[in-house]
Design a protein that fits this description.
Largest sheet: 5 strands, mixed, barrel
Radius of gyration: 27 Å
Helix content: 25-40%
Strand content: 25-35%
Number of strands: 9
Distance between the termini: 20 Å
Structural class: alpha+beta
């Protein structure tokens, strides 16, 4: 039996899939000896079955066996904008070198709009007149509003630890020249599993924000404006196109790890790149270490 180091398991999706395939429970058989009272006394061998919930490893094996047995998986990332080379095969299983990127949550103070007329404590010290009672009331009212707003945001972000992405590049695909096929694995995003199709080129940055806009706007990436995301020629779009990891780092993200991984994921989007190749966004069901 091969032993694996599982780095990440999407327990919610794994449970949902396994429940459709088989019982979430299994049995452990135990042998024993039973003495039958009588004359002469008898010794019998007995076997009992104890029910228990499947372990995480057993659930993973159950899902792996099912999708391979029913030919639902391809051992390569998509090379088609529709998300699969065969539309019935949404699951992908591959081994690759990937970088784990953590996008920290935003500071609640940064998510509440500021009014420079009131936030600058030195504002009135540079004026030639004293602050009027009306201005003071407005400033104090603003201060109370902002304090309450920051408190509400802080409560909303309670328990939110940011976003995690595994990113992998792949070039040298046979017959496709130098085209790059980047893969973004989005952890713990609870949207529908159904693939989303696009009929035109779409940037990775825009696709990421569209896929998890609420989550991204609660991270340090909230500073990226809607205009930057919608404009394919903006400076941030250009930088992200050529060096997505470096661009994420410049915006406050952190690289946690780079290693070889084996992953089973479900395709969410596969989008054509203007310079060739395809961008894949997917939900990993599990990620495990693939060793050196």
């Amino acid at each position: 039996m091969e032993l694996h180091e599982y780095i990440y398991v999407d327990k919610r999706r794994l449970d949902a899939y396994v429940e459709q395939i088989a019982s979430p429970n299994t049995f452990d058989k135990a042998s024993g000896i039973k003495i039958v009272i009588g004359w002469p006394p008898k010794v019998e061998f007995a076997q009992s079955s104890d029910i228990r919930a499947k372990t995480e490893a057993e659930k993973i094996k159950c899902l792996d066996d099912f999708i391979h047995e029913h030919n639902l998986v391809v051992n390569e990332r998509p090379a088609s904008w529709r998300g699969t080379d065969d539309e019935s095969k949404l699951y992908r299983f591959e081994t690759c070198v990937a970088t784990k990127i953590w996008i920290p949550p935003a500071d609640p103070e940064d998510l509440v709009p500021k009014d420079p007329n009131f936030d600058d404590v030195q504002f009135y010290s540079f004026q030639e007149r004293e602050e009027s009672s009306t201005e003071r009331d407005m400033r104090e009212g603003y201060s109370r509003w902002r304090k309450e707003a920051v408190s509400e945001v802080r409560q909303r972000l309670d328990g939110f630890s940011g976003l995690t992405i595994w990113y992998s590049e792949r070039t040298g695909v046979e017959g496709l020249g130098s085209a790059n096929f980047p893969l973004y694995l989005l952890l713990d995003i609870w949207k529908t599993d159904e693939p989303t199709a696009f009929t035109s080129a779409y940037s990775a940055l825009a696709a990421l924000f569209n896929e998890a806009q609420r989550e991204f706007m609660d991270t340090v990436l909230h500073k990226v404006t809607g205009d930057d995301i919608r404009n394919p020629t903006s400076a941030i779009q250009t930088a992200f196109l050529h060096s997505p990891v470096e661009q994420l780092l410049s915006l406050g993200s952190r690289v946690i790890d780079t290693r070889r991984i084996t992953t089973l994921y479900r395709v969410r989007r596969a989008l054509p790149k203007t310079e060739g190749g395809y961008i894949t966004l997917a939900y990993p069901i599990y990620i495990r270490s693939a060793g050196p």
